Amino acid sequence: MNVSVPKEQAAGERRVALVPEVVERLVQSGPQVTVESGAGEAAHHPDSAYEEAGATIGDGFTGDVVAKVAPPSAEEIGRLGQDSVLIGFLAPLSAADTVRALADRGVTSFAMEAIPRITRAQSMDALSSQATVSGYRAALMAAQELPRFFPMLTTAAGTIRPAKVLVLGAGVAGLQAIATARRLGAVVQAFDVRSAVKEQIESLGARFLELDMGLEDAEAAGGYARQLTDEEQQRQRELLAEEIGKMDAVISTAAVPGRRAPLLVTEQAVKNMSPGSVIVDLAAETGGNCELTEAGETVVKEGVTIAGPLNLPATMPDHASSLYARNVQSLLALMVSDEGELSLNFEDEVIAGACITRDGQIVHEGAKQAAGVTA
Ligand code: NAD
User: Fold this and answer.
1) What pLDDT, on the 0 to 100 scale, is given for residue 12?
2) Contacts 24+ apart (CB under 8 A), 319-322
3) Which of 98, 107, 172, 173 has the most crowded Cβ, counting Cβ within 10 A?
4) What is the arithmetic mean of pLDDT over 304-322?
5) Which residue owns the Cα nearest ligand 1 atom 1?
């Protein structure tokens, strides 16, 4: 089996699908690896490091398996062989054109986002590995943008009170944001509609923000949140607006898979914050948790700095790539036979669950719906 790694083309994408350390392990276990020249450059891995690890520098699209990070462009899909296997983030629930083009090209594609989040597949969970990076960076951004200290300081010039930070959504990114803000010394509260996370929030030294929403629990299949009803959302926004007004910084990470991000921070909530406060909206990519977020921009509105960063993992390409590469390596281990040949077992729930296109068809249920394919 030959695995190839293209240089990522998407604007601002600095990650690479395999790093030399992982290439070395792969090559020792059998597969050959070809890496496009410069593929690892932005993640600080020169071609020479890949060669030392046992890879060949060459065409990144010619492998039996092509390992990528970002969804492929139309041009990149055109470079894939008709019978090739593609692994990468494919945005199967939102990038319908990409998925259709992959099916039309005859590519067998596997989306990292669609790998079932079961215990056996934890080492392949790229949503989690990259969300860890996003949560960490979001907390640093909040600290950087805030014109005040995060920690409490007792100095000869007086005592500084610690910043109050609210984290909305305590999934993987939210929990990492809580941990990072705590390490910087902020007083942290967090809220999620899944009551199961209360304990996790408290174990990180933060307080679970109790909102009297009349909600039992909003945990749905797979441990994800269900979408709240219109009345529940309205009530949540009103209750949050008051609490947000007491905060120095809000880091919002709330998401519901395949849907627009829930709107949690209204214009009124922003007005309630004191000037100089900060909102970092990690949900900017899917519409934003804050009504005033501008995706990809940092703006000041009502005296509040509102950052809507896109693709934060790409801003920390070294560790983001090395974690992602280990996720890819674990998935590849499921795709190779004892003889070192490519072998896809569609009886395996991880292989079947992550597969988006195969034999010219879209085979993933969510991707089919997104692409408007009827049974
Ligand atoms: P996500 O990115 O889909 O959502 C982020 C958070 O937003 C979630 O915690 C969600 O409950 C919350 N949210 C949604 N609507 C909200 C609202 N209206 N108000 C406040 N919060 C809201 O989530 P994620 O980080 O990908 O994690 C989702 C789940 O998957 C978690 O239960 C996590 O523990 C689980 N998980 C399991 C595995 C595994 O077993 N392999 C790995 C990672 C995560």
Assistant:
1) 96
2) 319/133, 320/15, 320/43, 320/129, 320/130, 320/133, 321/15, 321/16, 321/17, 321/19, 321/40, 321/43, 321/45, 321/69, 322/19, 322/21, 322/22
3) 173
4) 98
5) 255
